[in-house]
């Protein structure tokens, strides 16, 4: 119930209509087999222009085959994305939306323990690209709905399921179009839930206990192309500087010059408030007494590469292309820099900083994509989406005692839905340890069969929790 989080309370106790989230052996086998099949379809997004469209189409066929989507309104949007509309019995309740994406980043086989699109089960884990990011969610959402419908559950609150096909390359053809379609129908959502927050385990230095982080905001981003052009010529009489040398020096300056540490603003303060007591001595003293230790904490946080990303705009050099032949002075050198913007900064401010760091007019800057950090969604007692997630985490994972709002350092399709709701929450009910975190876009991405079952159970519970009548409880200030 909501009693622990104080704000919203169930009007009625959960009646007999509540369906227990218990699944039979046959159902559990079918569940994991369905996920394996999804992993085997190589729905890779390479870049804005290029994706495996055959696989994207095949994925659509696959979900139709595995789930009884014919019983609910199912639309294909932007050629490959999917929008499901589940009509609730009580039109007075504002609808919500569950989101996920089924495109994945490329996965060259080198370095993987099992082929990345095999979906092989080994030692209790299903392996493959997309097992965490994010076919697990796509399949778990549809699976939970299917299991509820099979048990004759009739939702009271309407909800949508939006499954994007190009999240990894912007969401412009999928999520953006779904959002426009819903807007044209006059839909306003109570809240949305997407990927981007997790149950962190051993990921926050000093904290052993699991921390469920519901991301209430996410960083902005810029993809920036740096280019140097020069006249080609014979390499036996080289000029003093080449396009490659000039560009290399520029990107090296960017890598060597971190953006300013912005500790002291945004969602991190909220997260720190929740976590301060959990750190071991003497860190707990430092975090609880920022009035005295702020400068020290500011430095401590930037020591770890993950927490560093929470306090500053990050700059990652991700692509570098130059040269046409061994003995030709290169005409053009290009690099792509992927920047993630701290919520206290804007695209314009960061571009200005970049220009000053590059400080070389021969290096042209082209903005390929840019957006500001996302607004902070409410996490107070009255925030329905946040409180529903909070409640469901407490009931499905009773071992978790720390639930906190936070920020997602990656980007999600939610960027396209700010017109439909102010309640944007990013949370996947998955334990993520440092190895799991590194496997996002990396090697050996995998999910345990148990973890996947818990994800299905979580959504099964969340949908039912969203249907319980709630009354507001006056806010009680803690003494
Ligand atoms: C003191 C608090 C510590 C919390 C530390 C954890 C912070 C990590 C936050 C979020 C995890 C990032 C998940 C990434 C989501 C992936 C989505 C994605 O790949 N999108 C595409 C992209 O970003 O390029
Ligand atoms: Zn993702
Ligand atoms: Zn991703």
Automatic annotation (TrEMBL):
InterPro entries: Bact_exopeptidase_dim_dom (IPR036264), Pept_M20A (IPR047177), Peptidase_M20 (IPR002933), Peptidase_M20_dimer (IPR011650). SUPFAM superfamilies: Bacterial exopeptidase dimerisation domain (SSF55031), Zn-dependent exopeptidases (SSF53187). Secreted enzyme that regulates the endogenous N-fatty acyl amino acid (NAAs) tissue and circulating levels by functioning as a bidirectional NAA synthase/hydrolase. It condenses free fatty acids and free amino acids to generate NAAs and bidirectionally catalyzes the reverse hydrolysis reaction. Some of these NAAs stimulate oxidative metabolism via mitochondrial uncoupling, increasing energy expenditure in a UPC1-independent manner. Thereby, this secreted protein may indirectly regulate whole body energy expenditure. Its EC number is 3.5.1.114, 3.5.1.14. GO terms for biological process: adaptive thermogenesis; amide biosynthetic process; amide catabolic process; amino acid metabolic process; lipid metabolic process; proteolysis. Transmembrane segments: none annotated. Belongs to the peptidase M20A family. Pathway: Lipid metabolism; fatty acid metabolism; Amino-acid metabolism. One of its GO terms (molecular function) is metal ion binding. It is an enzyme of class 3 (hydrolase). One of its GO terms (cellular component) is extracellular region. Gene3D superfamilies: 1.10.150.900, 3.30.70.360, Zn peptidases (3.40.630.10). This is N-fatty-acyl-amino acid synthase/hydrolase PM20D1. It catalyses: N-(9Z-octadecenoyl)-L-asparagine + H2O = L-asparagine + (9Z)-octadecenoate; N-(9Z-octadecenoyl)-L-serine + H2O = L-serine + (9Z)-octadecenoate; N-(4Z,7Z,10Z,13Z,16Z,19Z-docosahexaenoyl)-L-phenylalanine + H2O = (4Z,7Z,10Z,13Z,16Z,19Z)-docosahexaenoate + L-phenylalanine; an N-acyl-aromatic L-alpha-amino acid + H2O = an aromatic L-alpha-amino acid + a carboxylate. Residues 217-360 form the Peptidase M20 dimerisation domain. Keywords: Carboxypeptidase, Hydrolase, Metal-binding, Protease, Signal, Zinc. CDD domains: M20_yscS.
């Amino acid at each position: 119930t909501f009693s622990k989080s104080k704000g919203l309370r169930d009007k009625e106790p959960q009646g007999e209509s509540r369906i227990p989230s218990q699944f039979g052996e046959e159902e559990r086998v079918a569940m994991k087999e369905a996920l394996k099949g999804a992993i085997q379809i190589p729905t890779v997004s390479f870049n804005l222009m290029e994706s495996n469209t055959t696989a994207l189409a095949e994925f659509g066929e696959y979900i139709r085959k595995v789930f009884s989507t014919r019983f609910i309104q199912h639309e294909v949007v932007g050629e490959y994305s999917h929008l499901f509309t589940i009509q609730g019995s009580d039109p007075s309740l504002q609808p919500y939306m569950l989101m996920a994406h089924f495109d994945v980043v490329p996965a060259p086989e080198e370095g993987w323990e099992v082929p990345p699109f095999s979906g092989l089960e080994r030692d209790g884990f299903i392996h493959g690209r997309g097992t965490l990011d994010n076919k697990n969610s796509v399949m778990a959402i549809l699976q939970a709905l299917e299991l509820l419908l099979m048990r004759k559950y009739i939702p009271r609150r309407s909800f949508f399921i939006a499954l994007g096909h190009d999240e990894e390359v912007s969401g412009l053809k999928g999520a953006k179009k779904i959002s426009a379609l819903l807007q044209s129908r006059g839909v306003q959502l109570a809240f949305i839930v997407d990927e981007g927050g997790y149950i962190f385990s051993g990921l926050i230095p000093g904290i052993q206990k699991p921390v469920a982080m519901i991301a209430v905001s996410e960083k902005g981003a810029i993809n920036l192309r740096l280019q140097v052009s020069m006249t080609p010529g014979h390499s036996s009489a080289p000029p003093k500087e080449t396009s490659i040398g000039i560009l290399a020096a520029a990107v090296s300056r960017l890598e060597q010059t971190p953006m300013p540490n912005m500790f002291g603003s945004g969602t991190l303060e909220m997260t720190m408030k929740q976590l301060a007591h959990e750190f071991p001595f003497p860190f707990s003293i430092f975090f609880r007494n920022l009035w005295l230790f702020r400068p020290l904490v500011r430095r401590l946080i930037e020591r770890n590469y993950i927490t560093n990303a929470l306090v500053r705009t990050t700059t990652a050099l991700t692509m570098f292309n130059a040269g046409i032949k061994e003995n030709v002075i290169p005409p053009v050198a290009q690099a792509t820099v992927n920047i993630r913007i701290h919520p206290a900064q804007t695209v314009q401010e960061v571009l200005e900083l970049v220009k000053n760091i590059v400080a070389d007019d021969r290096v042209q800057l082209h903005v390929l994509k840019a957006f500001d950090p996302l607004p902070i969604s409410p996490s107070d007692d009255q925030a329905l989406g946040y409180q529903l997630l909070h409640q469901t985490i407490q009931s499905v994972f009773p071992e978790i005692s720390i639930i906190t709002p936070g920020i997602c350092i990656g980007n999600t399709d939610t960027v396209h839905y700010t017109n439909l709701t102010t309640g944007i929450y990013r949370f996947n009910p998955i334990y993520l340890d440092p190895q799991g975190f590194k496997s996002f876009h990396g090697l050996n991405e995998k999910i345990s069969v148990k973890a996947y079952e818990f994800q299905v159970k979580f959504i099964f519970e969340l949908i039912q929790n969203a249907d319980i009548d709630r009354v507001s409880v006056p806010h009680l200030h803690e003494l």
